[in-house]
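Internal tracking record. Fields below are filled automatically when a chain is submitted to the structure queue. Please do not edit lines marked as system-generated. If the sequence contains nonstandard residues, flag them in the REMARKS field before resubmitting.
Queue: standard
Priority: normal
Entity type: single polypeptide chain
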Amino acid sequence: MKKTIGYVVLFLFLMVAGFFTYKVFVPSANFEIFYRMLRVGRTGEINLYFTRDEMIVPVVRKAPRLRSVDEKVKNAMTLLLQGPDEAEKAAGYDSALPPEAQLLSVFMEEDTVLLNFSKQIDEGGGTEMMLARLRQIVYTATQFSGVNKVRFLIDGQPIKYFSSEGLTEVEHPIGRADLEMEEK
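SYSTEM-GENERATED OUTPUT FOLLOWS
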């Protein structure tokens, strides 16, 4: 048994040493794939867009590095729905998103991410509040490569207008340019 464990450890050591030696002398795409696989799980940074002084501004947060765009957007939306943390609140950041809203699913169709929220996402009122809510979601989702637009679903159904304010921007997929905003 000890001999088998020793062979396994030796094999793994030689394999890792071989990859690193191979990288130094023969750069290749295969090693880059292996290296990226090893890096998954480490943290990176993402932007979450919150409100501050009647503006939508990015806040940098640590987040796990994920492979697929769907996973990245889902993670970012989950963090966004949780709202600003205590330090961010103390710095004046807030959120237009209702705390009861839930993200039900995320999936990609070409350059558009489809975000399926619970019905609470469009509850509330006030045109500026609803526009801020849309901007927070769209700006946070479209920071990822390959995501240019967001399509909103509520309980699995496409929507034609957002909230009792009747915002029709959501009738079709929308991007940052559709929600004019001055960034700080």
